[in-house]
Structure formats: C-alpha cells, structure tokens
Amino acid sequence: MRNIAVISSQFGYFIGTYPTQTIGVALILCFSILITFVFHPPIIETDIRHGFVHRNSRAVLEFQRFAEFYNSSWMDIEMMVVLIKPKYSNDKVLQITPQLCDQIKQLELHIQSFEVPNSVKPIKYNEFRVPGGNLNYFFDAFKFGYDLLTRQNKTDGSVVLTYPQGSIFGHHVSLASHFFGVKLVENYTEKGLPTAMESAATISLFFMVKADGILQKYRLRHWQLALNELSETGNYSDLFVFYIYGDQVGSIP
Question: What parts of the sequence cross the membrane (predicted)?
Fold first, then answer.
C-alpha cells in the first residue's frame, strides 16, 4: 500500500509540475488510438443462429448429430431456405401447374449455378455445397412424378401424388416438407387431375451449405447477399417471388 501511495504522489507531482506536457502526451495517445480505429475499424461478427441458443440445448445437440451425419462440423454447416410465394398480392396461392413446377426447378438449378464476381476468384455455390446434402429430393421426386402424369400420361397407378404423402414406384414421397397451406381436391383421379394438390400458399426449397473459417463465411455471406438482392428485384418469374433465409443474411445487423 505504501508503494502505491508513493507512486501516486510522484505521479501527481509530475502532472502538477508539467501540466502542458502531460496534456500533450494524453492528446497524442488519444489521437493515435482514434486514427487506428479510423483506418482499421473493428468488425463485430454476429451469428443469428449460434448467438441465440444455449450451447447445451436440445437444438444444438440435434444439429450436431445432423452435421455429423454429413461429416461436417456443426459450427460450419448452415441451412438456407428459399420460400416461394405468389407474385401478386391479389393472388393468395400458387396454382400447381406444369409451368410453376418447371420454373421452381429452374430456380433450384439457377441457385446451384449462381455466381458472384470476386477479385480473388468467382464465388460459386459448389464451394459451399455439402456432398450428399441434397434436401430437395422430395420436390424433385414430385416433379418427376408430376411430369410422368402430365406429359407422358402414365396412368398405371405407380405414381400417386396425394398430400401430405404420395408414392412413386412404391417409394414414399413426403410432399408436406415442401408444400404449405395446401388446398386439396377430393377424388382428384376421377376428375383427371395429376395430383390432389390444387394450390399451395408457400413452396419451399432447402440448401445445406458449409463454410470453414472466417474467409469462407465472408465469401458465403457475399454469395447469399447477392442472391438475396436478386430475390428482392421480384423479376425472376412471372408466377412467383422468392425470399432467402440464411444465417449469413440474418446475421447482417
């Protein structure tokens, strides 16, 4: 305690003896710190998913198992959801038609080939793609069966597109994972319709992506934001608009 008192006394004596020099040194130090922040501003990384969940929660444990199945770290793997809605406000639902299914499939392929220019190298979906991580197989199966019924007139009963679950060549197809707010048609086969679904309020596509480290997450963020800008134009399709929901888009303050 005595040493602290001596140091404080000497410090006070120095300030009292050289007030101008002390103020000058303090201003120089403050100015140097401010200059550092101006040229090298701090970047605060936010994470919309990891930041609002307890580290030992059930959601984290389930996601860890999900990531392990695809041989990935749960901190690196992310889900991106594309929600497809009617383009015009007076249209409350999306009518299930061959044209709609074709355009949604084209959107899926467009996202997988979407490329963003970059000074280092173009940012592409393939650098984030998780091998074996196709989450749209039920929609792809539905479109496959739908095309068989509408374009090849397959009527032997091997393709049944009921809701919430159909079957194609004996394989169950969960349509409820992609079609929401569905309006059904009773006795649709008797009416010559290919599916029991007349319309849907929302149709979804899912993409699992992986970004290792800060640099890859930075590239993924630019890719998702560019895709989000495309969705905000509303000009992709004459039948629908789509919205992007992903960790990198959601983490932007």
Answer: 20-39
